[in-house]
Amino acid sequence: MARRSRGTLALVGGLAVAAIVTGGYLWGARDTAGIDHRAEVSQRGAAVMPFDLARTTHLFAKRSSGGIQTVVADDQDDSEQVALIRDHLGEEAERFRRGDLDDPGRIHGMEMPGLAELKAGAGRIEIVYADVLAGGQILYRTDDPALVSALHAWFDAQVSDHGVDAETR
Known about the structure:
single chain
């Protein structure tokens, strides 16, 4: 009986070690995939956004009626980045009003959470651009709860994809 118990213990111990090793590998693979995806997003972002992601920060604030997307230069005295941010966000707000969200799709993938719903419902979302200190912001406002949820999912995807260059407020 003692022999059987040792065998069982060895089996259980071996399975535990295998689970830990496999779990560690899977987590490592998942982390590597996340890093690879962020690197791809950064490359595609550089092709779409004229400002430097490493010198700017994306801020996303969810609101009950939508949310606010802000991009600011990390150095508020970096007039080149501030001008690039403002020009780009102003143009994007115009496109978004028309339901053209292709730029975020090119950066994050056309299957990005919330993107299809926002394209389809663009006419029911108030989209307002404004300059802010060191950058610009886009306000998204709607009375449609489904579009609010789509905006929030879209914000979450951007924060996840941009990593250290984005945050939720």
